[in-house]
Amino acid sequence: MDTTNGHGPKAESHLPFWTPGSGHYGDTWGKQTTQTMSSCIDLLLPLLETIPVNPNGTFTIADYGTNDGYSSMPLITSVIDYLRKKHGEKLSIQVIYEDQEKNDFNSLFKRLSDDTSYMSKFSNVYPFATNVNFYKQCVPDGTCDVIFTSYATHWLENLDMTYKDCLYHSFASKEECDYVFRQAEKDWVKFLVLRAKELKPGGLLLAQNCCFKSLEDHAENKSRISKAAELTDGDMQLDMEAAWAQLQSDNIITKEEYDKCSFKGIHRNSQQIKSPFETEDSPARKTGLRLLHYEERVVPSVFKTPLDEKDPEDITYRKSFADKLVTAIRVWSQTTFCSSLSPMRTESEKAAILEALYERLHSLVMSKDVESYRCDEFVTIFVARKV
């Protein structure tokens, strides 16, 4: 196992590469994540009844890992609507958006200014943004009534290793997985403890995580990477692994560049997510967090069109699916691939390599059966209360 950091000590997980303010995230990958967050409206609204609210005070909502605010907009709008109907116009509502310092906050602010935003529908609402990383405390103790996070906490604070011959922990060896899961456990507990400090008594934390039911056999996965181009059943991660491996085998990237590329994200299983609440002396419970609700869901891919609308064998349909999926994948994957390329390469060389990578990924996706293609999201939905 290589425990040297191939990205460098301060490598970024993912950075916006599009024009600031263009709303590219919401137009692509955000269409998938907003579906998951919106599905939690019916779960969350009844729980708001239990939060102590001063109708003349301030109710604070926070969205951690917001990107451009697209994903959380329907959920936040529903919460504000509920609060207005129950507590009236005098209740001030503060909305805090958190993301990394290089986030596309321009798109967030444009979204908030749009006539479809909650800002055009409600008064006495005050949005803010912070670039403090959520592995640190982002707001003062006892600030928030509700905190959301979605598709964010799978990114680890630091991952001081690279996987051998693969990009993801799902294709890594047991030794590598054990190592990275120990880091993931520390990060998850740290995240929970920090959010508990920021919540008011009675406040709620709603977290959605990408999740694995179980890890498949390492040797079988490695074999599937080499055979990916021949398989008719597509898999998003598998095809990304195969496209990157093709670049190395064709000498477009070096073996060193191939080896340096590892994703800092981790898909925890249900036990790993719930374990901080299962012992009385755990740090999360000591800060007052109590697990209220836990469930697992499969969220269908929004990039597929129902069969009754399109012929799955139609080349136009398959191309449309590949176009949408690969464009969305690029949003969160390009930084990782780019950061593994040699600093001796020019920017134009790097750009050409990235284009070649996503062209190969597009070809792999387009060659597979759309309806059986594995790009649905297996997620956990988790609600905790600060007592």
List the helices and strands and how they pair.
Layout: H1 24-27, H2 30-38, H3 41-48, E1 58-64, H4 73-87, E2 92-98, H5 105-113, E3 125-130, E4 144-150, H6 174-198, E5 199-210, H7 218-226, H8 236-249, H9 255-260, H10 270-274, H11 283-286, E6 289-299, H12 315-339, H13 347-366, E7 377-386
Parallel strand pairs: 1-2, 1-4, 2-3, 4-5
Antiparallel strand pairs: 5-7, 6-7
Helix pairs in contact: 3-4, 7-8, 8-13, 12-13
Query: Strand-and-helix sequence, N→C?
Result: HHHEHEHEEHEHHHHHEHHE
Largest sheet: 7 strands, mixed
Tell me the strand order in the biggest sheet: 3-2-1-4-5-7-6
Mean pLDDT: 89
In percent, how helical is the residue content?
Answer: 25-40%
**Distance, first to last CA:** 42 Å
| Large-scale geometry | globular
Evaluate the radius of gyration. Answer: 21 Å
Strand elements, count: 7
Strand content: 15-25%
Summing up helix and strand content along with how strands pair, one would put the structural category as alpha/beta
Q: What does this protein structure show overall?
A:
It is a single chain. By secondary structure, the chain is of the alpha/beta class. 40% of the residues lie in helices and 16% in strands. It has 13 helices and 7 strands. It has helices at residues 24-27, 30-38, 41-48, 73-87, 105-113, 174-198, 218-226, 236-249, 255-260, 270-274, 283-286, 315-339, 347-366, and strands at residues 58-64, 92-98, 125-130, 144-150, 199-210, 289-299, 377-386. It has a 7-stranded mixed β-sheet with strand order 3-2-1-4-5-7-6, sandwiched between helices. Helix 5 links the parallel strand 2 and strand 3. Helix 7 (218-226) crosses helix 8, helix 8 (236-249) packs across helix 13 and helix 12 (315-339) runs antiparallel to helix 13 (347-366). The radius of gyration is 21 Å and the shape is globular. The two termini are 42 Å apart.
